[in-house]
Design a protein that fits this description.
Distance between the termini: 27 Å
CATH class: Mainly Beta
CATH architecture: 6 Propeller
Number of helices: 2
Oligomer: single chain
Largest sheet: 4 strands, antiparallel
Strand order of the largest sheet: 1-24-23-22
Shape: globular
CATH superfamily: TolB, C-terminal domain
Strand content: over 45%
CATH topology: Neuraminidase
Radius of gyration: 17 Å
Helix content: under 10%
Number of strands: 24
């Protein structure tokens, strides 16, 4: 485990997720204040949008318009040039739970995951579909039977989609075809077997690593936030852990690489992920730490 010195980038939020480095700023969603914000290296923070349905994943269309996942109403929103929000796609007929993280490719195709079940309500584990939303808002199912598909990353050549499966003890990969559809799922990294049973009380203890947020770097490794381990891991394809950063008593639930040279690892930390604890507190923060290998791929 490496020793790292953290600095606090921003603090005083509810629960921060889906960080993206874009246009010289860190863009991020705060679940329970319902805000999408953008923070510059100078410490200035701007509120970009307020999402009633709770914001999560972020991405950009080729023309620069922002796409925002609206979790609870299971929609994908589009921010127009005048700042208004419109529905880009309605995923409520496909998503089995709150819509979660996503990545948007260079052609404006959004790959969007969902919980698959009511996590915060304590419902039994169900697998989930991964959805493609094209630039025009048309929806199709890209993959099925994923264990809580979370952060997604597209390799710099645009040919591979990497997906963190938080409850699957694994990171999966798919070949991206010319039309944006996906080939069969394959293991990118495995940390343990798939969970047995469906009740969360039996599923959680079986997790060796719970890959939540993640980001690619220029050597083809992935930094992942381990949602159960209070740590960020740098993982090579195949599953070898190259580095580990402990966040001590704080949980870490998302991460990205940014800054002027993309060598700053931003970590979204909070005491836990439980809604009833986070929504009435202001204990979430983004910590920053310098790393050697810069980020790569789409934000």
């Amino acid at each position: 485990m490496s020793k790292h010195d953290f600095s606090t980038f921003i603090s005083g939020y509810d629960y921060l997720e889906a960080p993206r480095w874009h246009d010289g700023r860190l863009w991020i969603s705060d679940f329970y204040t319902h805000q999408v914000i953008a923070a510059g290296m100078d410490g200035r923070v701007e509120t970009i949008a307020t999402v009633v349905g709770q914001p999560s994943g972020l991405g950009w269309l080729p023309d620069g318009r922002l796409l925002i996942v609206s979790m609870r109403d299971r929609k994908l929103l589009r921010r127009e040039p005048d700042g208004s929000l419109v529905v880009h796609a309605d995923l409520s007929g496909i998503a089995g739970g709150p819509v979660n993280d996503m990545v948007v490719d260079s052609k404006g195709r959004a790959y969007v995951g969902n919980f698959g079940f009511d996590l915060m309500g304590g419902a039994p584990l169900e697998t989930a579909r991964l959805v493609i939303v094209d630039a025009g808002g048309n929806i199709s199912v890209a993959a099925e039977s994923l264990y809580f598909p979370n952060a997604m990353m597209i390799t710099p050549d645009g040919r591979t989609l990497i997906v963190n499966e938080t409850f699957g003890n694994r990171i999966s990969a798919f070949d991206i075809k010319v039309d944006g559809t996906l080939g069969p799922r394959r293991d990118w990294a495995c940390f343990g077997p798939l969970p047995l049973g469906r009740e969360l009380a039996e599923v959680f203890p079986q997790a060796k690593v719970a890959p939540d947020g993640g980001v690619l770097d220029a050597e083809g490794a992935v930094w992942i936030a381990d949602a159960i381990g209070n740590r960020a891991l740098r993982v090579a394809e195949g599953g070898r852990v190259l580095d580990e950063i402990s966040t001590g008593t704080q949980g870490v639930f998302a991460c990205t690489l940014g800054g002027p040279d993309r060598r700053t690892l931003f970590l979204c930390v909070a005491p836990d992920f439980h809604e009833n604890q986070r929504k009435n507190a202001r204990e979430a923060a983004v910590w920053a730490v310098s790393v050697t290998v810069p980020g790569a791929g789409l934000p």
